[in-house]
Write a structure and sequence with these properties.
The chain is of the alpha/beta class. The protein is built from six helices and eleven strands. A hairpin with a 2-residue loop joins strand 1 (about 1-15) and strand 2 (about 15-25). The longest helix has 16 residues, at about 245-260.
Amino acid sequence: MTTRLTVSHAEQITPSLRRVWFESDDLSAFAESEDTDRYVKLVFPKPGVVYPEPLNPRELRGKIPPEDMPAVRTYTALFPDVDAGTLAIDFVVHGDEGVAGPWAAAAQPGDRLVVNGPGGGYRPDPAADWHLLAGDEAAVPAITAALDALSGDVVTRVVVLVESPDHEPPIKGPGEIRFLHRSAGDDLVDAVRSLDWLPGRVQAFVHGEADAVMHGIRPYLLQERGLDRAQVSISGYWRRGATEEGFRTWKSELARAEGAR
């Protein structure tokens, strides 16, 4: 479902994480959304191209030149309030790099954005004995939402990789929250592997840079720790050196390769 959003205000959470708040006359698409990894597809029109309304990239394929297709980026939608018509999206900003980051850095009240969704597939299971949540800046919004959904007596282990201490977001929630720093040479894979493994049934949410998550942490959880796939939500949100279009191609190729095994 297509939802039209208007920027109400923005705040700088860390030097590299900017939270943009939106208003909408209709957030009914989010009324039944309970997943904490709730994601939407943000649609960024190409400058100078006139698109039909409502703007839906799927309906445009084959109807306009490929070079005129709008850019689509995937982000987690935070704190949707259907009655108030408000939600937030956290953007990782790297200067002029990318499409969504520069847009968010320059976003002003009144700016508009079209999103499609939401989708999702993860919410903390209250029946789990403990929860493992790990990722980098791209996973911070979904981890934030997951912690917000957990009660105070739940056992959690949270590991988040950021650039440096100045880039630590104000995450709050039950259990232990550990920040890693790239500037100090910290590594997410090593940190997850070195965690004390608690007894009982774990539910794991691990998302972030694709090579680290899919090639480093996923085999550890599924093969070495023997977790069932139903216990884990794990996939890459981005891949170093690749645009989202290139990352989608990589994910498709990985899925085909694994399906052929």
